[in-house]
């Protein structure tokens, strides 16, 4: 899910939904951006873990959209918005080598949190 908001690990409650707080003036652009970067780093740490634990000559790291932080009055990601900050997404070509640094352990199916597709879409701000 990360770096998509809501940011449940935010230190400040107003940064839980940073784009709403930024739009309302409750946080600065810098504070919202810093929170975004904090959560992006969590994702990149996991990408690094994956790259160190699989063998692949060609790996693409990308995303489905960017985010707006108030440019021309736009916040988050808005469908069909022409702004480059939302249209331009990262595209990194790399490779991976299994260094056997991590062994995954999946939780038992009965211990996972059951959510519906609608719950997930709402969490991501689509509903």
TrEMBL record:
Domain of life: Archaea
Protein name from the UniProt record: Sulfatase N-terminal domain-containing protein
Record-linked InterPro entries: Alkaline_phosphatase_core_sf (IPR017850)
Species assigned in the record: Halorubrum rubrum
Region span, Disordered: 100-127
Regions of compositional bias (Basic and acidic residues) in chain numbering: 117-127
Gene3D superfamilies named in the record: Alkaline Phosphatase, subunit A
């Amino acid at each position: 899910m990360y770096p998509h908001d809501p940011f449940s690990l935010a230190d400040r409650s107003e940064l839980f939904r940073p784009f709403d707080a930024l739009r309302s003036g409750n946080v600065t652009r810098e504070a919202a951006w810093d929170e975004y970067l904090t959560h992006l780093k969590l994702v990149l740490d996991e990408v690094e873990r994956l790259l160190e634990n699989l063998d692949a000559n060609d790996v693409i790291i990308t995303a489905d959209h960017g985010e707006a932080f108030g440019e021309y009055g736009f916040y988050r990601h808005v469908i069909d918005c022409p702004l480059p900050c939302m249209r331009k997404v990262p595209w990194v070509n790399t490779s991976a080598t299994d260094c056997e640094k991590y062994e995954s352990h999946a939780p038992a199916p009965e211990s996972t949190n059951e959510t519906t597709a609608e719950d997930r879409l709402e969490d991501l701000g689509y509903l």
